[in-house]
Amino acid sequence: MGKYQKTNDFNEIVFGRRTVKVYDPEVKISHEEMTEILQEATRAPSSINLQPWRFLIIESDEGKEKLSPLVTYNQKQIKTAAAVIAVFMDMKHIENMERILNKEVELGYKPADIRDLQLNTVKPGYTSMSESELRQFNTLDTGLVSMQLMLVARAHGYDTNAIGGYDRSRINDVFGLDKERYPTVMLITIGKGAREGHQSYRLPVDEVATWV
To answer: In what order do the strands lie in the sheet with 159-163?
Structure first.
């Protein structure tokens, strides 16, 4: 159990979520609870359950100092958040397909013949994809896990904010990650807001949805 009471209140999780610009710097998140948050977040769906997401948890002062020059407009968030979760995609995640499928068979989640069918039909399709096609699939999947992570964090009593404005060309080099294999997706700050974020207006459903 973390410092804050977890909630299953749907309205609190979805409608209570706010974009937070300044966090309480005294609030930290233990590795145990952060692991729990990530385990729950990674229940998000992904194409063929290949889970292409990878996370870098930046929580130390040294790590934040390395990140800070890459982020132009969100310095207070970076400095005061309990952590910054950098989300990346793994362009070679197909290498995990057989291990994932074997584990699903072992656990009784699917029969062996379905595993064999997927390995014989889906895997060749993935390995023959162009880089742009693969990146499109991975962008979708990492977006799903990122949103789920923010909702899970809210359920744990924490606030978050997604950041897309940072030096994407340098972050891999700064943290020693292969930029060809692990393209950057976004940053997510997490912690306890020092003050509640502002509410924001949403367009009506009849302006963004069409029935046919």
So the answer is: 53-58, 83-89, 184-191, 159-163
Q: What is the dihedral of CA 147, 149, 153, 155, to 10 degrees?
A: 70
| 28 three-class SS | coil
Look up residue 16 and give its DSSP letter.
S
SS3 at position 55: strand
CA distance 46 to 43: 9
- CA–CA distances in Å: residue 168 to residues 8, 86, 184: 35, 11, 7
Whether the predicted pLDDT of 54 surpasses 80:
yes
Closest among 87, 82, 58 to 159, alpha carbons compared:
82
- Asked whether the CA dihedral 59, 65, 67, 73 is positive or negative, the reply is positive
Task: Report whether pLDDT(20) > 90.
Answer: no
Tens-place pLDDT, residues 139-187? 999 999 999 999 999 999 999 999 999 999 999 999 999 999 999 999 9
